[in-house]
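Q: Hi! First time doing this. I have a protein sequence and I read that you can turn it into a structure. Is that right? Here it is:
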Amino acid sequence: MATVKPFKAVRPGKGYAEQVAALPYDVMNRQEAAEMAAGNPCSFLHVSRAEIDVPRQVDQYSKEVYEKGKENLAALISKGVMVREPKPVFYVYRQVMDGRAQTGIVGCVAVDEYEDGTIKRHELTRVEKEVDRINHFDTCNANTEPVFLTYREDKRISSLVEGITANNEAEYDFTLTDGIRHMLWRIAGDSEVSAISSLFLEIPSLYIADGHHRSASAYKVGVKRREQNPGYAGDEEFNYFMAVIFPGSDLKIFDYNRTVKDLSGNTAEEFIAKVKDAGIEVEKKGEGPYSPERKHDFGMFLEGSWYKLTVPRRLIPDDLIESLDVSLLQDKILEPLLGIKDPRTDKRIDFVGGIRGLSELEKRVNSDMKVAFAVFPVDIEDLLKVSDCGKIMPPKSTWFEPKLASGLFLHEL
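A: Yes, that's right. Below is the predicted 3D structure, encoded as structure tokens:
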């Protein structure tokens, strides 16, 4: 069962939400963050990416940067740009992208349930990325950005959420320059708060959709605070971290495509012949992007033409991980035919989120790459099954959109 509790959020004051809201810290580099925040002293990037406010020669992972983030957060609060909730509450957070809405509950989940596997993972994390957010959360004394969680839909929770959004005015309702609409409802009534907590106690598992590094960092900050407070009671805020929890039925996973710099010494004709020799069906589609229409089909862009590649049923393993399309591409083509043994470290391969469209694959092949592969998106149920089995998805398997905005709520420790 999943523990989900209300919290006293720090969030934008009236009229400030649109100015504060920013993209997540990890979808941009330092220069891009500086450009996004330019001319906007209220942008949450001054907290989440505080290196934009120190001299360029200062390392972005230095103590000075984390202290600057803490200072900037305190300034936003002291100026009334961000305010503290007077009591623990939940929120309903809705994002609308291209007419599709995803609506979730904002609350806090338990450090212990991350540790015991009630909150399930499907990705490996990198130590250096964990350390960055550990230092940031610890110095700011807050989970400054939420984790993106999902669960198998419970109609009772969905019905409750629908009632709240239909019968109450949103606290925030704005659309950012990327076209994403953000809406937030405050849930403060005792009966509604109690109902949400009780219903989640009947949900057997929560799943990390996006934010594995934030989850791991929040967990480790909680453990650190427990070590610093050996007499802790268990109800302290550091025993919990902030999340937005969406039903899986609301979510869309985009494709996560691959580009490769060379054909490992082959001509295009030789490479296509080797793909066929591997038992993969090849159909030339000509000009114009080809998007895979079902599992086990791939698009390939090579020398100005698109091809449809199909892995026949006889070549698909029964294993859950090995049968995923990202695994089939790796195991049937990238490693045996192109020599890419570890896509995490090989410099010859790059990854392109499906939100950029297939035209981005053509652009890359026409500039610095040789071949591109379009992959059918992972199904949300496959992701949940992998997590249920305690297994790890192949690298760069899923791309979720829209991303959660930063700055609309944070959780003080």
